[in-house]
Design brief:
Layout lengths: L2 H10 L4 E10 L11 E2 L1 E14 L4 E6 L4 E6 L14 H16 L6 E7 L9 H16 L6 H14 L8 H8 L4 E6 L4 E6 L4 E7 L12 H16 L8 H6 L6 H25 L3 H17 L6 H12 L3 E7 L6 E7 L3 H16 L4 E5 L6 E2 L1
Parallel strand pairs: 4-6
Antiparallel strand pairs: 1-3, 1-13, 2-7, 3-6, 4-5, 7-8, 9-11, 9-12, 10-11
The structure holds alpha-D-galactopyranose (GLA).
């Protein structure tokens, strides 16, 4: 048992089972997951831990160790919060109970949950999905039920869309539920299936947090705005962008706004990069895969318009460093982290130099992580 799990159990104060679900980094295919497209995330060893024990009533009592706060709801009487209510940490937990009951009809049992996480918040590494999937796994465990992992992911996405009012796609919850150690997953978000995309053992994913925070929840978040523009492109084409070729989009350019055209072009090219990317990883062509990541950044910055100057700077700096095969912003955009593909023997020097150069250029100390690719959610 790790020290973190032991400390959590001590805080919980009574016999409990412990469940975990990871955060993620995405390698290719950004903003493709609400267009039926492909994306390629990997689960990280940062996760949310939930200690859970059953209660004899129908209350869900939640204790966030990290916020030092408690919350309580009755599972028989869950009310969706108002759209303009400020988002609270406990919404992500209650929302999962709400959607599991709605979608699966499973009779959940009352539970005490003690929750802690080490996924950096607001950094684009899916801390919220990791909370949702960890709590869902815990609530199912307490109820003695199992569901297919993809169903758990869908219920968690529904919690975020319908209860927390965040307009996310399926990528984060899917990888948190289904991730496989040592691999990224090339997810077909329409079929809800995935193919293993093995990351060679002599390479590392180095994640660097620009410390520019982003916000995904809420109708007026940057995420919601770009998503509407992507949807405008799909609407103009009369079908999901998954089914639209680049030539077709170009031919229909004057039927949509300039923003919709550029967002749409990124979505189509980035989804295609996932398909090329899996083939390259399977053929062990890491150099070409790295170049694809860098190309994805240019598309995200220039077509999608959702990078920021700090992340552009980090990518530029990373690409100059020894052993770096590719680099890009990861996640929803407008800040957060970059991910670089780096030769394992160069990774420590890479991380140190990147941090030092970013600090001297911006005065900001970035968090830099040489990541391990972990398994998806489960009982600890
Ligand atoms: C956020 C969302 C995901 C996905 C990414 C962008 O992480 O939660 O569903 O849309 O942004 O790829």
């Amino acid at each position: 048992m790790t020290a973190r799990v032991q400390e959590l159990l001590e805080r919980h104060g009574r016999a409990a089972a412990v469940y975990q679900a990871p955060g993620r980094v995405n390698l290719l295919g950004e903003h493709t997951d609400y267009s039926g497209g492909f994306c390629m995330p990997a689960a990280l060893s940062f996760n949310t831990l939930v200690a859970a024990s059953p209660r004899s009533d129908s209350l869900l009592r939640m204790h966030s160790v990290d916020f030092g706060e408690w919350a309580e709801v009755n599972l028989r009487n869950l009310q969706v919060p108002a759209k303009d209510a400020p988002t609270k940490w406990n919404f992500y937990c209650e929302g999962v109970a709400w959607s599991l009951a709605q979608e699966t009809g499973i009779a959940l049992k009352g539970a005490d949950l003690t929750i802690t996480g080490n996924v950096p918040l607001g950094a684009g590494l899916s801390s919220s999905a990791s909370v949702e999937v960890a709590v869902a796994t815990a609530l199912l465990g307490i109820a003695g039920q199992t569901l297919p992992k993809a169903t758990v992911a869908l219920a968690c996405q529904r919690a975020e869309n319908g209860y927390v009012h965040g307009s996310c796609g399926i990528m984060d919850q899917y990888i948190s539920a289904c991730g496989v150690k040592g691999n990224a997953l090339a997810i077909d978000t329409r079929a809800m299936t995935a193919e293993l995309a093995p990351i060679p053992e002599d390479l590392r994913l180095v994640v660097c947090n620009s410390m520019v925070t982003h916000k995904v929840a809420g109708a007026e978040s940057d995420y919601a705005i770009v998503r509407r523009e992507v949807e405008e492109a799909a609407h103009a084409m009369g079908r999901q962008l998954r089914d639209v070729s680049l030539d077709e989009l170009v031919a229909a350019r004057n039927t949509m706004s300039d923003e919709a055209f550029h967002r749409g072009r990124h979505v189509i090219t980035d989804s295609a990069r996932v398909v090329r990317g899996v083939a390259l990883l399977k053929a062990n062509d890491s150099a070409a895969f790295g170049r694809l990541m860098t190309e994805a950044h240019a598309s995200f910055r220039d077509d999608f318009g959702a990078s920021c100057k700090e992340c552009d700077l980090l990518v530029e700096m990373a690409l100059e460093l020894e052993g770096c095969l590719g680099s890009r912003l990861t996640g929803g955009g407008f800040g957060g982290c970059t991910v670089s593909l780096v030769k394992a023997d160069a990774a420590s020097a890479f991380a140190e130099t990147l941090q030092a150069e970013y600090k001297s250029a911006t005065g900001v100390v970035a968090q830099v992580f040489i990541c391990e690719i972990a398994d998806g959610a489960g009982k600890v």
